[in-house]
Amino acid sequence: MAIEIAQLRKSFGRNEVLKGIDIAVEDKELIALLGPSGSGKTTLLRIIAGLDWPDSGRLEVDGTAWLSIAARDRRIGFVFQHYALFPHMSVRDNIAFGMTVRPRAERPGKAVIARKVSELLQFLQIPHLADRLPGQLSGGQRQRVALGRALAIDPRVLLLDEPFGALDAAVRRDLRSWLRSVHDASETTTIFVTHDQDEAFELADRVVIMGEGRIEQIGTADQIHDHPASPFVARFMGATIELPVRIAAGRATAPGIDAARLERRALPDGAATLFVRPADLTPVPDPAGLWRVKQVTSTGAVLRPVLTGPEGQEIAVEILRRTAPGLLAGQSVTLRVETGTIFTETPPGQRGQAGQSSEIKEIPLKEKQK
Ligand SMILES: Nc1ncnc2c1ncn2[C@@H]1O[C@H](COP(=O)(O)OP(=O)(O)OP(=O)(O)O)[C@@H](O)[C@H]1O
Ligand SMILES: [Mg+2]
Questions:
Q1: 37 alpha carbon – ligand 2 mean position (Å)
Q2: Ligand 1 pocket, 39 CB below 6 A?
Q3: pLDDT of residue 195
Q4: Is the Cβ–Cβ distance between 119 and 152 less than 8 Å?
Q5: Is the shortest distance between the CB of 40 and ligand 1 below 6 Å?
Q6: Is the dihedral of CA 268, 271, 274, 275 positive or negative?
Q7: Number of the ligand closest to the Cα of 51
Q8: I need a surface site. Which of 45, 80, 179, 322 has the fewest CB within 10 A?
Q9: Ligand 2 centroid from CA 178, angstroms
Q10: Which atom of ligand 1 is least distant from the CA of 213?
């Protein structure tokens, strides 16, 4: 099922938590919704599920307006952020639940329900747990049951709100690849919410980055990693170092910085900010360098030199210890930028967002010349 969301807005009291959301999810696509706490992910999912209503905007599924359809008629499988299985029901009954509460006319017969549950137990690789109560399961097993319960109604759309939130990293990794195969085999359209970047990028066809009720960027892992669309996305993707630079003829320069490896960009001359990941800055020993090594700590594989700049600013970078030159405290270095993204300042208010003056202004040269 293709899901089309246009200009969706939602406020709780005076707090606008969805500020005009536009997303088009393709049929059978697996989309990850990634964003900080409070950015509106759960609210968006609840609206798609029919558990909440927007103030305005459009929601269509396969071309049909969905906001007027009741939640139980939308055939949506939902796994909540804080999963709740019915504690007094066996795994088998938990999975069957959605089928048994359908209106009498649509309710499958007992034998059909039993067959469907066995199939799902096989599919989820938990037939041996059928008669246990939720309290007798591990966290990962409970997540599988919660997913089984969501899949039992043959959902047309599967909405998963941090389904692996409470689990440790190793179990999450297992469930991740397993979920991808479940999605592929069940032919649903899936929207998956997570805080975890690796999870989002590994699992999803496309990732939607949300920040404070807005969509900041939609794209594949590589697109978002290489070309963050806004300072927010750049920071969120780990470019935590911000260096002031001057742009002249599409080239960035700053004292003590070697930015020759950055692509030339169609940027207006003047002040700008370079966003870089700590691992994308290499301190190169240089007697005339304007940066100084303050200290170097090691985690074994990675060195974390702390550097002081010509204006007293302090940054921590990361280099592989194996490839690093013997950096010593007190040494002078030039900072070589391997890759990064430049944003120029736009006049405040241009995007109607108070307090946020620095906005996207990066256009690759090729596109500009078209
Ligand atoms: N029922 C409600 N009444 C009032 N405010 C609400 C309600 N539900 C959510 N909010 C507010 O809406 C904003 C978005 O909440 P939401 O739960 O959608 O965020 P989220 O992105 O899912 O966050 P998290 O990652 O922590 O789950 C928050 O500021 C939250 O306090
Ligand atoms: Mg949430």
A1: 7
A2: yes
A3: 84
A4: no
A5: yes
A6: negative
A7: 1
A8: 322
A9: 22
A10: 14
C-alpha 38 to ligand 1 mean position (Å): 5
Phi, psi of 54 (to 5 degrees): -80, 165
The amino acid that residue 26 corresponds to is E
Q: Of 148, 233, 236, which is closest to residue 196 (Cα–Cα)?
A: 236
Through-space distance between the first and last CA atoms of the chain, rounded to whole angstroms: 36
For residue 39, the ligand 1 atom closest to its alpha carbon is 21
What is the number of the ligand 1 atom nearest to the C-alpha of 45? 18
Spell out the CATH class of 3-226: alpha beta
Q: Are 291 and 330 in contact (CB under 8 A)?
A: no
Instruction: Return d(Cα 295, Cα 331) in angstroms, integer.
Output: 10
Query: For ligand 1, is residue 211 a contact (CB within 6 Å)?
Result: no
Calculate how far, in angstroms, residue 12's C-alpha sits from the geometric centre of ligand 1. Answer: 9
Instruction: Say yes or no: CB of residue 51 within 6 Å of ligand 1.
Output: no
Q: Using an 8 Å Cβ cutoff, are 169 and 139 in contact?
A: no
247 contacts 270 by C-beta, under 8 angstroms: yes
**Contact between residue 211 and residue 218 where contact means Cβ atoms under 8 Å apart:** no
Alpha-carbon distances, residue 155 vs 53, 64, 98, 126, 281 (angstroms): 20, 16, 10, 20, 47
Nearest CA to ligand 1 atom 27: 37
The residue extents of the domains of the chain are: 3-226, 236-369
Which residues share a beta bridge with 276? 241
- Ligand 1 pocket test, pick from 8, 34, 41 with the greatest ligand atom count within 8 Å of Cβ, gives 41
- Cα separation, 198 vs 300, in Å, equals 23
